[in-house]
Amino acid sequence: MKTKTKYPTTILLTRAAVAFAVAIFALAGSVRAATIERGGDISEYTIEQQLGTVFHDAKGNALSDPLTLCQTNGWTVARIRLFVNPPMTGVEVNTLSYAVTQAVKAKQRGMKILLDIHYSDNWDNPGYHNTPAAWQGQTYSQLLTTVSNYTVTVMRTFISSNVTPSFVQIGNEVGDGFLFPTGGPISFTNGVPGPSTQWSQFVGLIKAGISGAKAVSPTTKIMIHIPGGDWSSWCTEYFDAFTTACTNFDLIGVSYYPYLLGSEASDLSAITATLNALHNRYSGKKLWIAEFSYAWNWGVSNGPVYWNTPTGQYQITRDLCNLVSSYSDGGGVCYWGVFFVDNPSLSYNWEARCLFDYPNHWALPAWGGL
């Protein structure tokens, strides 16, 4: 995820309006995509509850376990992030034990696990790919061993709790590399990644993570995840180079956040162009929207097709799932910030884009679009 910003929430729904909207869109469940993995990133819900947030279903019933919403809406996958040694502030609390506990609960609700290993102490995304403090100062050769051993430890810990991840991301939004400065930053010039040393080391570090995961769990599918899902030429440029250097992965993941300067204005044309460009270009790789969100209440402007309303959020979520499902190599869609609601104890939040209204925290219709 690139930027976490608190957006204005100028449209406050009445509880009756939320319940009515959810009931209407529940009737449209038959049009949801069924041939792909569907779900979202659940990483915030535990800390939100610990800080006093109460989640409700669409009828206003308080939920002791909000993951019941995932189960009743037919989610097949829960995405969970993992930091090495997080600062334990805000929602940056995803230690190994925290992530495993969430995975156990998700499995109990019938979901597979998509483990998002950040290989960082904090957010690992464009502009922030810092090497964990405990790993800093290591040579490239030492980092190869560290990444491999860390991944083995992570996978064994999940397996020992009977929650073997079905899917694992080696890094998060690694379009410009990771583990800076050893594995990046990377940029492209006329389709060629560079600097050459950082590119080569980045690929080597990714391979070390892959080998660590596969050594423990050969059946786990590996995802390479980059940002910029609305930039088709960038996505093909990146994966043309990456698949030349590394083929031992299974899933192509892109982030898709259809907004520009506070104005939602998407008709899915950009992400369609990207999926068209990626479709069957890389043999055997499933296509995932690894991160996606859309504002139900931004208070800025409305898009020409999907408005910044609960209805618009539902429609674009449903249509995106159906779009990915329409490809023979379509893999899955994960909503980002599902439970990231307003809470005075958090330094920022995602309430304009999460899947609950504000300030009541009632489930929004977009649950039925996934």
Number of strands: 10
Number of domains: 1
In the predicted model, the low-confidence regions spanning at least 5 consecutive residues are 1-33
Cα-atom Rg, whole angstroms? 20 Å
CATH superfamily: Glycosidases
Order of helices and strands: HEHHEHEHEEEHEHEHEHE
Total DSSP helices: 9
Supply the CATH class.
Alpha Beta
**CATH topology term:** TIM Barrel
Shape: globular
Into which percent range does the helicity of residues fall?
A: 25-40%
Main sheet strand line-up = 1-2-3-4-7-8-9-10
Percent of residues in beta strands? 5-15%
Overview of the structural elements:
The chain has 370 residues and is α/β, with parallel strands linked by helices. It has one domain: Alpha-Beta Barrel (TIM Barrel). Helix content is 32%, strand content 14%. The chain is built from nine helices and ten strands. The protein has an eight-stranded parallel barrel with strand order 1-2-3-4-7-8-9-10, surrounded by four helices. A two-stranded antiparallel ribbon has the order 5-6. Strand 9, helix 9 and strand 10 form a beta-alpha-beta unit. It is globular, with a radius of gyration of 20 Å. The chain starts with 14 loop residues before the first helix and ends in a 35-residue tail after the last strand. 51% of the residues are buried.
